[in-house]
Amino acid sequence: MQDSIIQLGSVPVAMTQPIRRLTGRLRTTRADHVVHGSKTLIAALLTWGIVAPWSPEGRPYMAVATALLMVNASTVYQSVTKATQSVVARVVGLVLALATARLLGPTAGAVAVIAVIAVLAGPRRTADDRLQIASTAVVALAATATDPLGSLVSPALQTLTGAAVGIAVNALVLPPLYLNESDSAVRDLARSMGTLLHDMGTGLSRRQLTSKAHNWLHQARNLDKRLTRAEEKVRQADESLRWNTRCVAHTRRKETTFNDTFAALRGVSIQVRGIARTLADNAHDHHADHHLGHQFLDRYAETLHLAGAAVQAFVESGPAAGSPQSPESPDTSARERLRGAIDGALAWHDTMTDMIGRGTLTEPGAWHVYGSLMTDVERLLADLDRADTH
User: Fold this and answer.
1) Separation of alpha carbons 133 and 125, rounded Å
2) Which of 131-135, 161-165, 173-177 has the highest mean pLDDT?
3) CB 356 within 8 A of CB 370
4) How many Å separate Cα 52 from the centre of its chain?
5) Mean per-residue pLDDT for 53-73?
6) What pLDDT score does 9 carry?
7) How many other C-beta atoms are found inside a 10 Å radius of the C-beta of residue 156?
8) Which pLDDT belongs to residue 142?
9) What's the CA gap between 195 and 123, in Å, rounded?
10) Tens of pLDDT along 350-382?
11) Are 60 and 154 in contact (CB under 8 A)?
């Protein structure tokens, strides 16, 4: 009776976990929007106050536009690189406008020349750079007729000032970090692979190889999407640490971006896909002597269960960003679970290898399938073991 009460009482708790995660994400998103809006407002007002006194007619629109572009960059590093590209592109556009205005005047022919030159700028510049050069040149073309020198100097100074203000605000006012997003993406990838390994193990133990092998292969192939997303998030987190003042204040290091963890999981995903592909091929193999024996399937199912637990425990054992773990912390128990899962799976692996070597498994015609499946599991565990050791 008490057990049933405990089980019933645990259901609402399990159901509230996704709600709590969603609520946490909404709060984080809302806070990000507030910070983002505040930084944008600060950059715009600060740029206007600095540039308006000396800009033509007190209208520093180009400076404000540049500052908004820089402050809205995803990382401080992106602010600097975008600022460099923007300043160079606009200066080139202003020089192009001055040159064409002197040769052809502010006419339709000058606009056509600007468009042709921008298109033929070459592959070294991106399409955005070419478009920015052309648009800046066309906008500045009218002003060059009345004040050629001022039309070049003032916009260039506005661009430089706006870029400097935008970079400064983005770097000093809560510069963006993406460690949580990287952490979430890597853990999601590991959970997906661990769940798939566990599902394959359960299916093999229930003799569902033929009915579910195709679905397993489909899920394994879909891991590529999660892998790509995790790679993008890890790269973004690593980039957000470059020139970031918050990293200096909190003594953060690049290891917190889960680069090593993701590298290990990328190798694991290859093995998971190989296991799913081999099982799918075997399920549709019409040669009866190639089918896997029940004894092997039972042993291999247990190995997949342990491998799935090892993959999920692998990301749980990673240290939190910027916070050392004590010997009694939850990180220690997660690492112990990882070691236990790896050691258990390796023990099953040795047992099955010995059985194959002594020829005690049934269906000897499937030896090549045995070897493929065993090799994939061996490599999977070796990747986890090597990464955990480091």
Assistant:
1) 10
2) 161-165
3) yes
4) 40
5) 86
6) 42
7) 16
8) 57
9) 45
10) 777 777 677 666 555 666 777 788 888 888 888
11) no
Q: Take residue 109 and report the two structure tokens written for it.
A: 């022919």
**C-alpha span between 205 and 297 (Å, rounded):** 7
Q: Is 249 exposed, middle or buried (0-12, 13-18, 19+ CB in 10 A)?
A: exposed
Q: What are phi and psi of 55, to 5 degrees?
A: -80, 155
Asked if residue 164 lies in contact with residue 206, where contact means CB atoms within 8 angstroms, the answer is: no
Quote the CA–CA distance of 388 and 314 in Å, as a whole number.
7
Neighbours of 17 (CB within 10 A): 9
Q: Are 306 and 345 in contact (CB under 8 A)?
A: yes
State the pLDDT confidence band at 90, using cuts at 50, 70 and 90. Answer: confident
Tokens representing residue 98 in the block:
């001055």
Phi, psi of 280 (to 5 degrees): -65, -45
Distance, in Å, from the CA atom of 194 to the CA atom of 272, rounded to the nearest integer, reads 9
Structure tokens at 327: 């010997």
> What distances in angstroms separate CA 380 from CA 198, 199, 295, 375, one per listed residue?
14, 17, 22, 9
Q: Which residue has the higher pLDDT, 127 or 116?
A: 116
Q: Angle at CA 262, nearest 5°, toward 260 and 263?
A: 65
Model's pTM, two decimal places?
A: 0.71
Query: Which residue has tokens 């192939």?
Result: 221
pLDDT at position 361: 60
Give ∠ CA 54-59-64 in degrees, rounded to 5. Answer: 95
Residue with tokens 């990882």: 338
What would the pLDDT profile of 309-344 be if each residue is shown by its tens digit? 888 888 875 544 444 444 444 455 666 766 777 777
Q: In angstroms, rounded to a whole number, what is the distance separating the alpha carbons of residues 173 and 168?
A: 8
pLDDT for the residue 288: 54
When comparing pLDDT for 268 and 284, which is higher? 268
Q: What is the dihedral of CA 90, 93, 98, 102, to 10 degrees?
A: 180
Between CA 258 and CA 237 the distance in angstroms is: 9
Q: Which residue has the tokens 């002594």?
A: 358
Residue entry with tokens 């100074």: 157
The answer to whether residues 303 and 341 touch, using CB atoms and an 8 Å cutoff, is: no
Ramachandran region of residue 181, left (φ > 0), alpha (ψ -120 to 50) or beta? Answer: alpha
pLDDT higher at 332 or 154: 154
DSSP string for 11-23: HHHHHHHHHHHHH
Q: Is the Cα torsion angle 295, 296, 299, 302 positive or negative in sign?
A: negative
More confident residue, 246 or 42: 42
